[in-house]
Amino acid sequence: GQNIDQPTEMTATEGAIVQINCTYQTSGFNGLFWYQQHAGEAPTFLSYNVLDGLEEKGRFSSFLSRSKGYSYLLLKELQMKDSASYLCAVSLPGGGNKLTFGTGTQLKVEL
Amino acid sequence: ETGVTQTPRHLVMGMTNKKSLKCEQHLGHNAMYWYKQSAKKPLELMFVYNFKEQTENNSVPSRFSPECPNSSHLFLHLHTLQPEDSALYLCASSQDFSGALEQYFGPGTRLTVT
Using an 8 Å Cβ cutoff, are B37 and A87 in contact? Predict the structure, then answer.
């Protein structure tokens, strides 16, 4: 079976940095996605990693280590609007662009 | 606004009703997906369509029946549902279904089965 683990909840302070971890054990790997989902809204794409290393995009960065089955999403200069659920998803090989998701990490940003 | 719309946004139905969920994408994509999102559970892939052809049925009960008349529209027909089918149903699309491509999600239909 496929297994993707991420913390259920995290709390951080406005202006701070937070790291959301994701570990995975899957039958194959074709890349890892991070999505952001505000309550009652559609998940929106944040990042995609297929090679080891850090991908930076503005305040958000994502890291991947394929040998460790590990990724993290780093959010800098936190803003209140960053309060949302962050979903880690692994793309499985074999066609079909199939994503297997973790349960998501609910991030709360406080003053 | 992601370019993927879903109607209705909320639906309450009894176990003997028949209803349909509609999804439309305005992105020119060729692949479309249905997902189920239940509380405290991961997003679950239900169906995948590529160029109107169903390529994946992730062991979904037959009380859920998808239909894809063209690459822009996707329906999920519901009949004789169970209370445990209450969830958020999300539609998504991608350029096609090869490799690993970003999927664009709609806002979902919140379904309650009474």
Answer: no
Distance CA B10, CA B73 (A): 19
Integer Cα distance of A53 and B28 in angstroms: 32
Q: What does the radius of gyration of chain A's CA atoms come to, in whole angstroms?
A: 14
Q: Are B67 and B78 in contact, with CB atoms under 8 Å apart?
A: no
- Point out the residue among A42, A87, A89 whose CB comes nearest to the CB of B106: A42
Do the Cβ atoms of B55 and A33 come within 8 Å? no
A24 CA to centre of own chain: 11
Averaged pLDDT, A59-77: 97
Task: Answer for the pair B85, B113: CB distance below 8 angstroms, yes or no.
Answer: yes
CA distance from start to end of chain A:
40
Give tens-digit pLDDT for B30-73.
999 999 999 889 999 999 998 878 878 778 999 999 999 999 99
